[in-house]
From TrEMBL:
Short name of any one Pfam family annotated for the protein: PPK2
SUPFAM superfamilies for the chain: P-loop containing nucleoside triphosphate hydrolases
Identification of the protein by name: Phosphate--AMP phosphotransferase
InterPro entries per UniProt: P-loop_NTPase (IPR027417), PPK2-related (IPR022488)
Transmembrane segments: none
Length: 479
């Protein structure tokens, strides 16, 4: 047991109740070599915090199931909601060291330097969106660790723990690996804690947390975000200027072309599964542009055990209490599977900007955050293709009326759809900004004129097949 200074423990309780009331999510990272004392410090801290809003997340060595998801998937999955606290006992830093040691590159087509960049961007994305990340490195001399390990070995009940520690120590010099990360203070700086005296170490840990959270609370009280969509008064689109009449396919031609493309899409699905390549398909566009119908034709012949269709609506309360990317990061497909997104994380720079749900600084920052998020998926081996289905305003009106007059389709039209139509020009400008700022080599946008649904469906299917074939050919060359 570690004897904790009662005044510090009381102050820590007070300050974390304050962060809870202010809806500040807190992530406490505790790293340290095996047998360094970090487990005792972590437990003392865990016991001092309110169990109602504190969670303890232990990073174990990656299992086969973990390797089928993007590197940061489980950390996105375990994000604390607003006002909650996560204690991360070992973290993405330990995970990367283990990936390096065991030369784990299964399902990861990037080098480890790119994953380091993903980790740095992950922390920046969280801190820019209100997460408080406190990082601690527990340091102890190797001689002290050896004595601790020997004590564990001599205890029949705890002998297994010593063997687990030694297994990790055989594969790497954790101190040397971590020193590289400890020197990087570009986002969230590290606090080093010497564990030679456990009471002093605990006091340092508690004092550091209290100090940093006090600074954060003060900053929170001074922050007054500005709500502004920052739209132009007389916006003229330079992107959505199609001659819609030219982009069409006849009914008979469509019937001839579609089955072959759908069959090829099924073959692509199996090839992706064999190559362990995940495919992320994002569909955005005007209301009634045919996103759902497009997805339906693409997945018509697919094996349903190998894909997930994500129809994205307004966020639920639990989703609003997390980072906006949380609900999407949880749904990213594992290796060899396909994830369809009927609307997506781009709501941050579309509906949230247009409706004033998000401060100007937040939606402006989101372009880079989304680019980094997609890059991390790409670095973990994913193919990402994004479609924007563009519709003429008059065509949308016709489709709205058709839905109202058709009992089988009436459920598709709502008062909100009519209200959104009044903001057509704002949606057009927000969409153009989105495409221009997030069209990247690793996650390209494909803008498709969609007045003719048949043309849009055939074009999307052809695009998916072409891009996947190119990636599969590259994967074959690597093998």
């Amino acid at each position: 047991m570690i004897s904790i200074d009662k005044e510090l423990e009381f102050e820590l309780g007070e300050i974390t109740r304050r962060t809870h009331d202010l809806n500040i999510p807190v992530m406490i990272i505790i790293e340290g070599a095996p047998a360094s004392g970090k487990s005792r410090l972590s437990n003392a801290l865990y016991m001092s915090l309110d169990a109602k809003y504190t969670d303890f997340i232990a990073t174990r060595p990656p299992r086969e199931a973990d390797l089928r998801y993007p590197f940061l998937h489980r950390y996105w999955y375990h994000l604390p909601k607003d006002g909650d606290i996560n204690i991360h006992f070992r973290s993405w830093y330990s995970q990367l060291i283990e990936y390096k040691d065991y030369r784990i590159k299964r399902n990861i087509n990037a080098d480890f330097k790119q994953i380091e960049d993903d980790m740095r961007n992950f922390e920046k994305t969280l801190t820019d969106n209100g997460y408080e990340i406190l990082k601690f490195y527990i340091n102890t001399d190797k001689e002290v660790r050896e004595r601790h390990l020997q004590k564990l070995k001599n205890n029949p009940v705890l002998k297994w723990k010593a063997e687990e520690f030694q297994s990790r120590l055989q594969h790497h010099d954790y101190d040397l690996e971590m020193e590289h990360f400890l020197m990087d203070e570009t986002v969230c700086p590290w606090t080093r804690i010497d564990f030679h005296n456990k009471e002093e170490a605990a006091n340092t840990l508690y004092s550091s947390i209290i100090k940093q959270l006090k600074i954060r609370i003060k900053r929170e009280q001074e922050n007054k975000p500005q709500i502004d969509g920052m739209f132009q008064r007389d916006f003229k689109t330079g992107l959505f200027t199609f001659d819609f009449d030219k982009e069409s396919i006849g009914k008979n031609e469509y019937k001839d072309m579609l089955p072959a493309l759908q069959s090829r899409m099924r073959e692509i699905q199996f090839q992706l599964y064999q190559a362990k390549i995940p495919l992320v398909l994002v569909y955005e566009g005007m209301d009634a542009a045919g996103k759902g119908g497009n997805i339906k034709r693409t997945r018509a012949l697919l094996d349903p055990t190998g894909y997930k269709n994500n129809a994205i609506g307004a966020p639920a309360d639990i989703e609003l209490a997390h980072h906006y990317l949380w609900r999407f990061a949880k749904r990213t497909p594992r290796s060899g599977h396909i994830g369809f997104f009927d609307r997506s994380w781009y709501g941050r720079v579309l509906v949230e900007r247009i409706e004033g749900f998000t401060p100007a600084s937040a939606w402006q920052r989101a372009y880079d955050e989304i680019n980094n998020f997609e890059k991390s998926l790409y670095n973990s081996g994913a193919i990402i293709i994004k479609f924007f289905l563009s519709l003429d305003k008059n065509e949308q009106l016709e489709r709205f009326k058709e839905r109202e007059n058709n009992p089988e389709k009436r459920w598709k039209i709502t008062d909100e759809d009519w209200r959104n139509r009044e903001k057509w020009d704002l949606y057009l400008e927000a969409s153009e900004d989105m495409i221009r700022k997030t069209d990247t080599a690793h996650a390209p946008w494909k803008v498709i004129p969609a007045n003719d649904k048949r043309y849009a469906r055939i074009t999307a299917l052809r695009t998916i097949i072409k891009i996947c074939e190119e990636h599969l050919a590259k994967a074959d060359k690597r093998v």
